[in-house]
């Protein structure tokens, strides 16, 4: 059950590369780190597992790699059950946070190492190493050792070592966490370019929302060992399915309410918390009187010192009246913290398009309004 997403994309016509079925990992102390997850990941995807510390995302990655054994459930790669297959025999390479480059070897030797372990012919080793160096644009640095490289170069070298083995799947464990902000911003796009260029399937673990939103084709948001939602980035932001997701990705004002009307092309949710009705331009799942929550993003809320033309103070629709309590001026936009009559704090952002506009100020009475299509419907 969920709010209708007009943007929803499907990958059902593809055969999944990774099939996770009812996966459980329970440690000896009784803690359940992964709690019955089922998930399909498709060839050439850049998939991000996003969650806060302790959500289970790193445990799930370790289960995929074979470093942990599941308590229950299965992991299939290309239809093959991985349950009894050790890490070194899985068609997977993993890039660790530390990059794990051998310090006494050159970058070229680091890339060759895994290929030699696989006992590939010498000509093939040279060919794959040269190809990997070309992909990461580091041919001129092939003879350098890791300590002679920058953080970003070491990261690319570690990725080249993964790519050279041509695995079906590359796992990235917080790949940008060791880099400074400027280098992180640069490497986000470089990693995506490399993934698209090689056609590899990447699964990345991160706690950074911006990284996941920028890099991934789909995001799985984890909380307490469970996947709260799996969707492309735009859908996660615009159509979150739960209050957790709405608050974890970006900021949201969330109100409790109950469904009062469901029509073919519209729905109404009444909220005692706001003394306002939320009118939507679409039919939603549910039944009348069902408890539900609605969410609004700050940038989707308009703020004005004058009421909308159709404003009815006795039965307000898509309008909340409040007082400005705080203002944060940030040049191109201002953020307003507005307190409603019920005491609820609501954040609205307003772009400063006009230099001398009559913007609201502290303690002004203001009217917060929004378009029906911008109301997020949350079922839990």
Automatic annotation (TrEMBL):
GO terms for biological process: putrescine transport. It comes from the Bacteria. One of its GO terms (cellular component) is ATP-binding cassette (ABC) transporter complex. InterPro entries: AAA+_ATPase, ABC_SmlMolc_Importer, ABC_transporter-like_ATP-bd, ABC_transporter-like_CS, Mo/tungstate-bd_C_term_dom, P-loop_NTPase, PotA-like, Transp-assoc_OB_typ2. Residues 18-249 form the ABC transporter domain. PANTHER family: PUTRESCINE TRANSPORT ATP-BINDING PROTEIN POTG, SPERMIDINE/PUTRESCINE IMPORT ATP-BINDING PROTEIN POTA. This is Spermidine/putrescine import ATP-binding protein PotA. It comes from Cysteiniphilum litorale.
